Amino acid sequence: MGKLKAAVASINTDALRHNIQKLHEQAPNSRLLAVVKANGYGHGLLEVAKNAEGADAFGVARIEEALQLRSGGIVKPVLLLEGFYSDSDLPILVTNNIQTVVHCEEQLIALEQAELENPVVVWLKMDTGMHRLGVRPEQYDEYIQRLHNCKNVAHPLRYISHFGCADEPDNPITSQQIELFQATTSKCEGERSIAASAGILSRSDSHFEWVRPGIIMYGVSPFDDNDAQQMGYRPVMTLSSHLIAVNDLKAGESVGYGANWVSERDTKIGVIAVGYGDGYPRTAPNGTPVWINGRKVPIAGRVSMDMLTVDLGPDASDEVGDLAVLWGESLPVEEVARYVGTISYELVTKLTSRVIPVYIKDAI
Ligand SMILES: *Cc1c(COP(=O)(O)O)cnc(C)c1O
């Protein structure tokens, strides 16, 4: 037995750089606000930001994430994509030079009533049709006026919106959202942004001055019917572990909790040291692929907390200690997500703290 580590997430910073370069080619007239919320989509907030030299700014969802970037030495602009959640956040934004979205009247009033040392950079969010966050178009002018009159707001304002269906390229809502955003901001002097990954890839007319790539920057597709590698992006994360047992199983015998998989033939079962305690989904059904020794093998039996089991086949020569890739370069996370019935976003962000992150570069 060698010295093996269980679940490891290898993060290839050269792949990240490649993807950022590719994004600049894809949106050549736009600046890039790299979205690093949720621990950099599970890739490591600070490590991603430090290796994202080509990014022009960073987007996060929580003020704690913004502060982690600042205390980690990141000096580029940082934007709170959903804005601040309480009045007491405002002085922190000023002190740490953090930009904010304003999407509702409560945030506007907080800005109007605050006593701040310096003005805050504000992105006014418009609800162009997703109906999650944002000011309705018919109220947009009034908000612009009030923000213009507010001494705590830096000028010019910036304008932001978000697509609800850009991952469905034929959905007419996206065009309506672009037109509405374009029309409502046409007389505004500030910079605009509406496209996240799906918009960047499918609608060049949505790029405006800033694009906001999240998932595609990590080399994962926002669409459910293709893989990012087919579009020239490289997966940044590879989740792997090792075989800790290879056992014989007879035809008619079952494997694992609930005995929900029964072998039709004599075979060999591989036990891999990764489970839902690491963030691998327990809902991965029988048949979900795992990559071992150059081929895909199917999950056989329920995923448990620390282990999962695969059918290696009767002629398998795999051994304890062999590498198993759960997703990554050889096995797109998009494919695993399709089996699990979720989106890749959820798989990469749900890894737990038990998974060891390892930052690597391309072998030369
Ligand atoms: C998360 C998020 C993004 C990035 O979305 P992806 O689909 O991962 O590219 C962009 N903009 C906003 C407002 C977000 O919340």
Automatic annotation (TrEMBL):
Keywords: Isomerase, Pyridoxal phosphate. Belongs to the alanine racemase family. Transmembrane segments: none annotated. PANTHER family: ALANINE RACEMASE (PTHR30511), ALANINE RACEMASE, BIOSYNTHETIC (PTHR30511:SF4). One of its GO terms (biological process) is D-alanine biosynthetic process. Substrate binds at residues 132, 305. SMART domains: Ala_racemase_C. The modification N6-(pyridoxal phosphate)lysine is found at residue 37. This is Alanine racemase.
